[in-house]
């Protein structure tokens, strides 16, 4: 659903850019809290989730290269808002998808640069807000089980894709550059993206379910699922009708037990390997049919004023390394480069956010108390 330059006029593109900028700014503040409070270890939890958030961005980039057929002559691909929000939190999720869209637009000429605000608003903000809101509502009414998280993930992802199609239709109604009846655009966009939503839901549920199966503590949407630690009375305790033994001298109180910190290295390596396999190998077998927006644009004529991408001469344009004649090698290498670049940028953003949060929280305020940055 990457919107190219020329679909939406300048005023609406600027307005969407302003919305995207404001949402990213809010998400930067919210992501600091999500990263700093991740896991049971607080700041220690953030040490492990900042790299994991970067990995989520890289994984979404990789899976977006896997177009799957949904109808005759049409394909779809993961949007990723639901997946990111459930795994690492809604604010961090908006940033993950935004990083992916930025890398795709700058390096691979996918999604217009003047339409970057439109794409972030549609694919990062709308999908994340709709998906996470629905997910939280379902989790509250479903039984407190791991399977409920997977079911809620499926439904939330399914709904988020046609919601993004509706949002695009609304923006096109306000600033479309071609004279096409909006009713036709709405029907075509929603119809095909309901089908794409099924694929999105399957990928999201499978990924969330796989992570929950091995490390539920790393899934933001599954927080509170584990039962709290309970202290049970020893069966060797004296009956109520017998006198209690003389109290022993009081011993120094032992520190409260803390949960051992589990390494995330295996999960991180497994996720990175999956992303590299998807982008570097499986992507070669992805559907070559146009995705939902491209198909609707061609059939309905809303692409009449599409402009060439400003980065069309990029050496990685169209997800292929320039001057490499072997299509499989060129595409696979481009995918690997994209995963690496997205991982580096995404991880860098989240590490900086984590450090700023930790630094701000450690500074005393005027009253001598630790301050907390937001």
* Helix vs. strand class: mainly alpha
Classify the helix fraction into a percent range: 55-70%
Strand content: under 5%
Described by the principal axes of the CA atoms, the overall outline is globular
Straight-line N-to-C gap: 33 Å
Count of distinct strands = 2
Spatial arrangement of strands, main beta sheet: 1-2
List keywords for this structure.
single chain; 374 residues; mainly alpha; two-stranded antiparallel ribbon; 60% helix; disordered C terminus
Word description of this protein:
With 374 residues, this protein is mainly alpha-helical. The chain is 60% helix and 2% strand. The protein has a two-stranded antiparallel sheet. The longest helix has 35 residues, at 327-361. The radius of gyration is 24 Å and the shape is globular. It starts with 9 loop residues before the first helix and ends in a 13-residue tail after the last helix.
Short account of what is shown:
This protein has 374 residues and is mainly α. Helices cover 60% and strands 2% of the residues.
């Amino acid at each position: 659903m990457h919107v190219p330059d020329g679909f939406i006029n300048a005023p609406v593109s600027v307005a969407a850019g302003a919305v995207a900028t404001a949402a990213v700014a809010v998400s930067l503040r919210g992501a600091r809290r999500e990263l700093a409070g991740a896991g049971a270890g607080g700041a220690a939890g953030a040490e492990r989730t900042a790299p994991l958030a970067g990995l989520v961005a890289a994984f979404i980039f990789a899976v977006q290269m896997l177009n799957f057929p949904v109808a005759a002559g049409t394909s779809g691909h993961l949007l990723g808002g639901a997946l990111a929000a459930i795994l690492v939190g809604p604010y961090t999720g908006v940033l993950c998808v935004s990083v992916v869209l930025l890398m795709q637009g700058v390096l691979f000429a996918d999604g217009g640069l003047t339409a970057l605000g439109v794409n972030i608003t549609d694919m990062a903000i709308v999908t994340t807000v709709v998906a996470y809101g629905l997910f939280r509502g379902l989790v509250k009414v479903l039984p407190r089980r791991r399977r409920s998280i997977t079911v809620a993930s499926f439904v939330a992802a399914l709904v988020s894709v046609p919601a993004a199609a509706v949002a695009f239709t609304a923006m096109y109604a306000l600033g479309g550059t071609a004279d096409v009846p909006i009713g036709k655009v709405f029907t075509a966009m929603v119809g095909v993206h309901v089908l794409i939503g099924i694929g999105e839901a399957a990928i999201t549920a499978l990924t969330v379910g796989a992570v929950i199966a091995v490390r539920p503590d790393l899934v933001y949407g599954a927080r509170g699922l584990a039962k709290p630690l309970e202290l049970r009375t020893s069966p060797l305790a004296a009956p109520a009708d017998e006198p209690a033994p003389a109290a022993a001298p009081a011993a120094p109180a032992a520190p409260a037990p803390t949960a051992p910190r589990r390494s995330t290295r295996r999960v991180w390596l497994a996720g990175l390997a999956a992303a590299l396999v998807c982008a570097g190998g499986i992507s070669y077998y992805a559907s070559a049919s146009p995705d939902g927006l491209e198909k609707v644009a061609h059939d309905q004529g809303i692409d009449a004023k599409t402009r060439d991408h400003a980065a069309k001469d990029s050496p990685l344009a169209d997800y292929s390394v320039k001057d490499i004649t072997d299509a499989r090698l060129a595409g696979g290498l481009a995918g690997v480069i994209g995963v690496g670049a997205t991982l580096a940028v995404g991880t860098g953003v989240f590490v900086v956010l984590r450090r700023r949060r930790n630094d701000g929280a450690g500074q005393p305020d005027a009253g001598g108390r630790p301050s907390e940055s937001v």
